[in-house]
Amino acid sequence: MIWSRHNISSPSRADVTLARVTGGIALAVVILLALVLMLLVRESWPVLVDGGWTRFFVGDGWFPSSGQFNLLAMLWATLAASLGALFIAVPLGVLSAVFSRFYSPSWLVMPLRRVMVLLAGIPSVVYGLWGLTVLVPLIAHWEPPGASLLSAILILALMILPTVALTSESALAAVATSHLQGAAALGLSRTGIVFGVALPAARAGILTGALLAAMRALGETMAVLMVAGNVVQTPSSLFDPVRVLTANIALEMPYAAGDHRAALFASGLLLMLIVTVLAWLAGRIGTHSNA
After folding, report:
1. Tens of pLDDT, residue by residue, the chain (291 residues)
2. What's the predicted TM-score (pTM) here?
3. Which of the residues 100, 153, 200, 259 has an alpha carbon 20 to 30 A from that of 231?
4. Which CATH number fits domain 62-290: 1.10.10.10, 3.40.50.970, 1.10.260.40, 1.10.3720.10?
């Protein structure tokens, strides 16, 4: 075997340059994330040292003027809206990917993919405007006031559906063709191949996509703010108006001061911790799938 300077054991100058550039970008992202975390901790520190995390989960509610910063109702609303959106978007997104990959005519595959990409790129305020002018009045005819947890769930489901669909399609496309051909050679029907071979093989990628969608749902602000009703209460039904943590930060930060401002930063820190856990889970799933 003839070795040259431009092989895998001796990378070229372009390879070295590219490695340094990409490494620098990765390091910059890590530093930026650390700076954001440091900012959140620094700004929320005054209220954290005065009672710790427990003060955010006890008390009569969210009354900043009285020094009460109970986040529990908004945390439950945030989790309920995100989980409800996932329960709708994940099955629809996976089924959309299955149709696109295994059942769609070839001429329809690309238009479907472009529609999903377009949906993923629509600004959240546009979703919020549509929800406020169309979805909320429809729900209000059914059960007033319309602006509610259900509206937030449906808007979030529509927003994260493209993420689930596109990542699921990529995961299904990565399934080894030999697995599918082997299943066909054994006489399995197309449905049997899809649900017995393709989906189990793509499970890790689909779960990772669902976690990414969950992160977007947790961090969404404008669309939820416009359709959820913004009442600080623990929801007892789908038709109750609610306020999520992100909307609370957006609404109150312009005039917050002192402990109130620090409490808003603490709620942002709580959201970041939740998203960090989800990112860690996504990384673990990816690691196990590659092992």
Report:
1. 444 444 555 667 887 888 889 999 999 999 998 999 999 999 999 888 887 788 888 877 898 888 888 999 999 999 999 999 999 999 999 999 999 999 988 899 899 999 999 998 899 999 999 999 999 999 999 988 889 999 999 999 999 999 999 999 999 998 888 888 888 888 888 888 888 889 998 998 899 899 999 999 998 999 999 999 999 999 999 999 999 999 999 999 999 888 999 999 999 999 999 988 888 887 777 666 555
2. 0.88
3. 259
4. 1.10.3720.10
